């Protein structure tokens, strides 16, 4: 969702995610379609390690700007996430208070809800997991989308380790990240055990894909009889453009999921347009899922059921 990740915004303050891939410019005209691989490694379980630093604080600022631009109709959205609200058919974890994905789902008549800091769910604490399980006890969600901050796992973080203090700081950040991911994994496995589909998104180049907690997610899903799939989405294929509105941004997301039909939402760059390098102010812009991407996911969820 093109959105800032509000989970732990106070502890992630380096700036938003950025791609340190040398995207340059594309002018070729060949096209490709989305593809998937299962966890046995037939296609795309490997991930690149070329992503620069991110931070949820800058994303939170972007979230406020986005919220202001949507007008007063969205201001009451957080209230609708309360414990007294209707049972949800879809949950979005670790998202912004005004995430586009939930808005797109609601526009399709789905009872989608945000479980994040603003709605009382601090997934760095195990209590949030139990709270979510109790919330979905009577009617678990059919979909659960999770995208925690990946600040600690960007390539730029490694490049910035010049002093002992910096190394210790990164170690603390990665420990906190793994604790957050561990709790999210527990909740995703619970949703899967209840018959729902789960979706874990991080940038394709995020080094965190290799951490033990995500290996445990894959193994846990296998143990429950699920096939683990990976789908890629290039933001430019959904119209993600730079701040000038001229060239495209090739932000690359990877989604780990149990949903085989999610392939219809996977898109790769058609390589028939120019790309702006994702850096500076374009970094914040690329932190948000394009609206057409959110609409495509909402359409898919509305049309199918686990």
- In what order do the strands lie side by side in the largest sheet? 2-8-9-7-6-4-5
Query: Rounded to an integer, what's the Rg over CA atoms?
Result: 18 Å
Low-confidence runs (pLDDT<50, min 5 residues)? 1-5, 8-80, 82-86
User: How helical, in percent, are the residues?
Assistant: 25-40%
> Approximately how much beta-strand content do the residues carry?
5-15%
Main structural class: alpha/beta
Number of helices: 8
What's the mean pLDDT score? 77
- Beta strand count: 9
SSE string, helix = H, strand = E? EEEHEHEHEHHEHEEHH
Shape: globular
Distance between the termini: 21 Å
Return the domain count.
1
Largest sheet: 7 strands, mixed
């Amino acid at each position: 969702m093109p959105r800032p990740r509000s989970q732990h915004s106070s502890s992630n303050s380096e700036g938003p995610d950025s791609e340190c891939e040398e995207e340059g410019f594309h002018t070729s005209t060949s096209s490709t379609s989305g593809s998937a691989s299962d966890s046995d490694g037939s296609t795309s379980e490997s991930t690149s390690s070329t992503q620069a630093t991110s931070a949820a604080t800058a994303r939170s600022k972007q979230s406020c700007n986005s919220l202001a631009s949507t007008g007063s109709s969205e201001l009451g959205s957080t209230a609708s996430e309360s414990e007294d609200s209707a049972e949800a058919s879809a949950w979005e974890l670790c998202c912004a208070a005004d995430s586009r994905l939930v808005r797109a789902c609601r526009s399709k008549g789905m009872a989608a809800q945000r479980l994040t800091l603003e709605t009382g769910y601090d997934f760095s604490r195990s209590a949030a997991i139990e709270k979510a399980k109790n919330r979905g006890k009577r009617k678990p969600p059919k979909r659960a989308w999770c995208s925690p901050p990946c600040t600690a796992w960007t390539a730029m973080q490694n490049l910035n380790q010049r002093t002992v203090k910096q190394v210790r700081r990164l170690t603390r950040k990665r420990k906190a990240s793994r604790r957050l991911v561990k709790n999210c994994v527990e909740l995703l496995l619970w949703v899967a055990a209840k018959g729902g589909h789960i979706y874990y998104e991080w940038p394709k180049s995020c080094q965190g894909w290799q951490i033990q907690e995500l290996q445990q997610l894959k193994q846990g899903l296998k143990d429950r009889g699920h096939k683990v799939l990976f789908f890629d989405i290039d933001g430019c294929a959904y119209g993600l453009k730079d701040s000038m509105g001229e060239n495209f941004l090739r932000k690359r997301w990877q989604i780990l999921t149990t949903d085989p039909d999610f392939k219809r939402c996977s898109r790769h760059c058609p390589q028939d347009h120019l790309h702006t390098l994702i850096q500076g102010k374009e970094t914040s812009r690329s932190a948000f899922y394009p609206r057409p991407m959110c609409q495509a996911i909402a359409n898919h969820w509305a049309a199918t059921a686990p």
